[in-house]
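Memo subject: From amino acid sequence to discrete backbone structure tokens
Action wanted: Derive the backbone structure tokens from the amino acid sequence.
How to read it: Take the token row as a discrete description of the fold.
Attached in line: The record itself begins immediately under this heading.
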Amino acid sequence: MTTVALIVAAGRGERAGGGLPKQYRPLAGIPVLRRAIDVFLGHPRVDAVRVMIAEEHASLYETATAGLDVGPPVIGGTERQASVLNGLESLSDAAPDRVLIHDAARPLVPAAVINRVLDALDGAPAALPVLAVADTLRRGADGVAAGTVSRDGLWRAQTPQGMAFSAILDAHRRASAEGIAVTDDAALMEWAGHAVALVTGAEDAMKITTAEDFAMAERLIAGATETRVGTGFDVHRLGEKEPGGIDGVALGGIVIPHDRALLGHSDADVGLHALTDALLGALGDGDIGAHFPPSDPQWKGAASDRFLADACRRVRDAGGAIRHLDLTIICERPKVGPYREPMRARIAEICGVSVERVSVKATTTERLGFPGRGEGIAAQAAATIALPFRDQP
């Protein structure tokens, strides 16, 4: 059976603050939407993911999903219900057996909840993850308590909500034609006469709405991650420029004017090479030479941002996030100071992190050793990443 996850991300999400719609704000260094997508892309029982967005958020979507195996987004409507219908209609030709409809604002839903929803769909046309209402419910009027509401039979609804594709598409089409508005897709299935199975949700599948919710989600992530630190070091000789080569040295992701050139199989950017090794070291995933061997002709003259971007991808694929990158360049010339901020900005761009998470420093060796004699440039780097915590076997 084929299963497609539809992620609703067309809202404006302004109550959470931060200057961005909440689905595009970073949560522990990764956009909320990207976290939500990653959950389903990494689930073995989900075949594809499709996202509904607001049309004006196209560039934010491209940035948040860079490198992910998701297709072009579906433009949503003015209300959630219309956005879901647009997403379902976009699947009408493929006609999957089941859909999981999920709110992007719930980026931490556990895989176990997805499994329970899918298991329930084996015997029901729809499934809804819920949590029991634990707090006492009170009515109020004009700031005064006005009675207690029984909690019996009351549940807190979550997502993803699972449905047989043909049934939910038909329900949405009918509701649109008749002007029926509901709060979620499970309610629409009930309106259409379908039974909705209840399965156990999870507190981690909380919906992020306010700044306080962001803080709570950050704490949840922090409690489920471990911090890793890796280091990297690289050296390249300075020599005569090759005909047709770059007019300067590639350093920290930019080109700095210089009367000599860094020599190496790639563009010899010692800064990006050191950062790449630092990230790979934090992952325990070999080194730059293992992944991009100088014996391979395809890397001759290659821009080193490809190496760093690949290391960042490996961090993301492991479910991790880059917390901080610290680069020190060691040379007498060229002077790094005037180029420090452009380097920080370029490294942040390559790695998909905010510039505040990138440090670039420079030092000399007081004219001692090969850097002091102007024979080459060295760089050392440290990378701090967060990875999902896994107990040792």
Q: What stands out?
A: The chain has twelve helices and 19 strands.
